[in-house]
Amino acid sequence: MVLHVFCHQQDAHVLEKVIVGYWGYWESKLLPIEHIPWSQITHINYGFASVNEGIEPILTNEAQLIRMVGIAHQHNVKVLLSIGGWLGSRSMSSMAATHENRTVFVDKVVGWVLEYGLDGLDIDWEHPGKSALDCNTIDYANDADNYLALLRQLRSSLDAAFSTIQMTANNQSSTAAADNGHRLLTAAVGTTPFFKNNAPITDTSHYAQVLDWVFIMMYDTYVGKSVIGPNAPLQTSMQAGASPQSFSQAWSAWTSAHMPAHKIVMGLPFYGYVAKPKEDAVTLRRLLVTAHTSRPQGDPDDDLSAPSSCPGTKRRGYSGLWKWRSLYTSNVLLDAKTPGGQWIKNWDQESQTPWLYNPGTVVVAHISAMKPRFNTIYSDPPFDKLRRSRQHLGQSQLCALSQRKRSRNLGPSL
């Protein structure tokens, strides 16, 4: 489960703190629904319904969703259904391509909102107009425009479906009307605005008119790259081979494209990756070193038996992923600041990112020398990172509940 916190502007004078968490049905063992810290959140997104075959979305684990809604509402927490995700966006482009296809989708998901008593929808199309999974359909020229048409149709249908509820609530109390009359529509997005003809669009104001907020997925920055780098850098590094993506870059990209700041939620993870460097990262005193092509195993949950991303393909190996909580249970970290065992904590000044290094050695074939074994990139708790970016504090925060050390609170009060 991932959590994001931000101040949502309801009108010109009022800022309301909103704390939203993502929870996937596959996380039921790691974080059972009844153990979710309900008193610390205001909204929860249930993931994921998918659009993988044809144009009609498919809802998995309906019973879990029903249970989620019931328990969440007992705690006065609103529930949104997330649709898509990294593994569930294969047919998003085809679905959004025509009015007829969009209508099938919209009718289905708005029907779910009515049927299950949901408080809104979260669209997680990864990614319009841009390559993601190899098996995703994509229309480089039209995805961005089609996505806007889809969001407008969703907004209109949600408003129409609940207008009767709002009128009934108005006859009862203004509080009930405010709670029942508006259903949320949000979107999970990349670190740059939606792509059109292989370039990000420069104006997202029309999207802002129909969305309550966008959640920028600011993580996995160096996954699949040939170098080892920070999972969620605060600043963009100027070193050769560095990714241009960072917290500051993503914030600037979206605000420059006219997404209102109060509608931006920045995503930061409570996990990182382990990789095997070809160079001595500690001697070089920098993160961006060349990585071996295959990742070593991450934490104990990093399983080779997990399904591949696309049908008919084989998984390429371990992901190398370490959850924040696993750093504690495996004694990689003794507390937030103290590494355990052979692990050494380091700091990358350019990206403003901490990282860990294990000087355990292996013998490299044909070379009579000892080489560094593993380099793990991880993040300090996101609240600490955001304190170092004062200009953004109060706009957005995020952490991963199912991956955090369970005894910890979510973070300081905002």
UniProtKB/TrEMBL annotation:
SMART domains: Glyco_18 (SM00636). Residues 17-414 form the GH18 domain. Gene3D superfamilies: Glycosidases. One of its GO terms (molecular function) is chitin binding. SUPFAM superfamilies: (Trans)glycosidases. Keywords: Carbohydrate metabolism, Chitin degradation, Glycosidase, Hydrolase, Polysaccharide degradation. PROSITE patterns: GH18_1, GH18_2, N6_MTASE. It comes from the Eukaryota. It catalyses: Random endo-hydrolysis of N-acetyl-beta-D-glucosaminide (1->4)-beta-linkages in chitin and chitodextrins. This is Glycoside hydrolase. The keyword Hydrolase applies. Belongs to the glycosyl hydrolase 18 family. It comes from Mucor ambiguus. One of its GO terms (biological process) is polysaccharide catabolic process.
